[in-house]
Amino acid sequence: MNPVILLGEAQLRELVPLDLAAIDQVEAAFVALATEAVAMPPILRLDLPAQRGEVDVKTAWLPRFDSFAIKVSPGFFDNPSLGLPSLNGLMLVLSAKTGLTEAVLLDNGYLTSVRTAAAGAVAARTLARAATPHVAILGAGEQARLQLQALTLVRRIERVSVWARRREEAERFAADVSACFDLRCDVAADPHRALADADLAVTTTPSTTPLIDAADLHPGLHITAMGSDAEHKNEIAPAALAAVRYIADRVQQTRVLGELHHAIEAGVVRADASFAELGQVIARQRLGRERDTDITLCDLTGTGAQDTAIATFALARARAAQAGTFFINDAKTPG
Amino acid sequence: MNPVILLGEAQLRELVPLDLAAIDQVEAAFVALATEAVAMPPILRLDLPAQRGEVDVKTAWLPRFDSFAIKVSPGFFDNPSLGLPSLNGLMLVLSAKTGLTEAVLLDNGYLTSVRTAAAGAVAARTLARAATPHVAILGAGEQARLQLQALTLVRRIERVSVWARRREEAERFAADVSACFDLRCDVAADPHRALADADLAVTTTPSTTPLIDAADLHPGLHITAMGSDAEHKNEIAPAALAAVRYIADRVQQTRVLGELHHAIEAGVVRADASFAELGQVIARQRLGRERDTDITLCDLTGTGAQDTAIATFALARARAAQAGTFFINDAKTPG
To answer: A7, A79, A234, A268: least buried by Cβ within 10 Å?
Structure first.
């Protein structure tokens, strides 16, 4: 049997930086999801309420890739009190031909961060106006930084407004952004002021009550909502969702987990309405933005297709660089 | 962060033989499943029809164990033509307190074989008569051998009848059994003759049409049906199932994947009837066998709880033996 390749977080950070190649790889996954006979079962979710823990397992097979990923994403929200990060996890890469394990990517969630930020860039590239000088970011965590970084790779940004529930985090974010990206970054007093004259907004919070109302919408705005990946999370008010051109990463997921779910529940959007997916818009099967004055919203819940795309990308780079530790796994003990 | 422990198939075969300790560990999982606030989500299943491939992912959290397993079981049925086994896979062990990855058990499906055989022994110990000298085995693959081996650990067996679709495989099985277990083993011409005066029968085939009919039942018989773990598989005729005392490993699974599913579909068993689970019988919450003349049937579809039980057992043994390879996974490259 072939050896299993093991890669740790440090190696994966070197091999797979957030760059245009990663964004193009994730875009390819969205196109495949919309146009090919992809197999992507519903997310497996294990809840451990006593530990404030949860684990998501995602997978997808895409005909264009020789391998597929199975991703395990634990979130244990008491970890910070133990000096550990809340989110971690790993990806397994299996051969799509034989099912044999090709690689174990012990990325502690890093590749998920990259593919999630890359999806934000794909959404902006596909749906935002060509000129989006002013970006609003809601939330000030790691993914807020990465979303902004990904945007700078696909759009010329001149100014950032950031809002976060804890003002000191927004201030730290603003200082970081000014230093790292040479961009003016202001802290907004509330989400509404952050959005007031933004061209593009990205929501990256775990909020369970809407942050963006219908009153915050204005012609030309594009919103990428990436915070909601579970039933109880909600960043966009149902009335706002009903007023925009809505595009999902995967409708069968956003109906259950995303912003769409809340709008359907509130009765402002019909449950049986047909919604476009990001990959369909890229593949020109469905309409995205038609006019500069359109208001677009992309609802990202995270797909196994993105995981397969980024994991196969990481494995190919590791092989090219001859990186990683090989684990020979024979049934018989040697000798 | 703590290092991740890697164990390969050869090491796991040495650390976790099929023995009474493994059987007791799996029994504990069934008791927990019946009596504790276990979290066991439905199986995640990915189908790759073009490759004749399928992948099951199972998991369960049991309060009594400090860790939980996530098991990945691929089955790629064209693999033998490539000189590779159809079944392989691995188990991940995560901390139930922090979600951090503790171990990667690259067992190629070995631990699944052990926990499945152990479940057969638990079913026999719980439901079969005390004296079961004559055992019928349907199927002659690896799991048929392991089921018989597990039975010899909990019951005194004097004689075996084996049937398999391919007679030459049954003959090889019979020769192996005679040699390894010092037992008389006869090849039966059909399943009915194999069962004719058996005390205990184990079905281990991937059959999609029933092998055991109502006419094969006789007072005192216990049947363990472990072949059906998918919607289309079926070893027990609905009329036979309706005529026995039926016990499931997990009713919510057997209603969908197991023998019960076919009996409900055929209309011989009411879909809303209440069925006992193996763990409930062990914990004396539900009745199993009451009389020597009862006919009992245990429907095993395989549970994530068994995977968590065997994986935590393997990890504890590896730690005690200081076995395994340590993988230090820091975010920063050293130096």
So the answer is: A268
Which chain A residue's Cα is nearest to B74? A99
Interchain CB contact of A68 with B (< 8 Å): yes
Give the separation between CA A144 and CA A226, rounded to whole angstroms.
10
Chain B contact for A80 (CB, 8 A cutoff):
no
> Which B positions 221-280 lie with beta carbon below 8 A of chain A?
none
Number of H helices, E strands in chain B: 11, 15
Note whether A82 contacts B: Cβ–Cβ < 8 A: yes
Q: What is the spatial distance between Cα B110 and Cα B113, in angstroms, rounded to a whole number?
A: 5
DSSP letter, residue A267: T
Q: Do B10 and A92 touch (CB under 8 A)?
A: no
- ipTM of this model? 0.91
Residues A317 and A292 placed together within one structural domain of the fold = no
Both A239 and A317 in one domain: the answer is no
Q: How far apart are CA A120 and CA B215, in angstroms?
A: 63
Residue A322 CA to chain centroid, in angstroms? 28
Flag whether residue A197 sits within 8 Å of chain B, measured between CB atoms: no
For A70, name the nearest residue in chain B, comparing CA atoms only: B72
What is residue A334's DSSP assignment?
A: P
Express each pLDDT in B165-190 by its tens digit: 999 999 999 999 999 998 999 999 99
Of B59, B89, B327, the CB nearest to A325: B327
**Domain that includes residue B101, residue range:** 4-111+305-327
Average pLDDT over residues A213-236: 92
Question: Structurally, how many domains does chain B consist of?
Answer: 2
Q: What is the pLDDT of residues B9-62, one digit of tens each?
A: 999 999 999 999 999 999 999 999 999 999 999 999 999 988 899 999 999 999
- The answer to whether the Cβ–Cβ distance between B63 and A50 falls below 8 Å is yes
